[in-house]
Design a protein that fits this description.
Layout (H helix, E strand, L loop, with lengths): L27 H36 L4 E5 H7 L8 E4 L5 E5 L2 E5 L4 E6 L6
Antiparallel strand pairs: 1-5, 2-3, 3-4, 4-5
Length: about 120
């Protein structure tokens, strides 16, 4: 932010602001550019995470066309699946933990085998 700004000066381009006395920007472009500059780091971090989550979901969906199937750790890893990123978990009464990427989930059966499932609407 510019600290030596005059009362009616745009925070982004320093041009004169016309209109209301409490107006901070001369137009929408300056307001958007100012806010995009402030949020650039957060946006790039979130974009990277969202790219990973979208890829994980897409891979699970491709490997589970029927809504219930099995696959191996090697197949998931070779396709580029990242086990560190998921959106939520579901713990069964038996203590098993399903990991979900939005509506697509997996359960580790043994060291190398995973059950793939599609989240049903009644599962919270």
């Amino acid at each position: 932010m510019i600290s030596n700004r005059k009362r009616n000066q745009c925070l982004y381009c320093n041009e004169e602001v016309k209109g209301r006395i409490d107006k901070k920007f001369c137009d929408d472009n300056c307001r958007n550019s100012f806010n995009n500059n402030i949020n650039r780091d957060a946006n790039s971090f979130m974009s990277r995470i969202n790219r990973i989550l979208r890829k994980n979901r897409r891979l699970l969906k491709e490997m589970n066309p029927t809504g219930k199937s099995k696959t191996t750790r090697e197949k998931l890893l070779s396709a580029g699946f990242n086990f560190s990123y998921y959106t939520n978990t579901y713990k069964t009464k038996a203590g098993k933990i399903y990991y979900f990427v939005y509506d697509q989930g997996y359960l580790q059966i043994d060291t190398n085998t995973f059950a793939l499932v599609e989240k049903l609407e009644y599962v919270d």
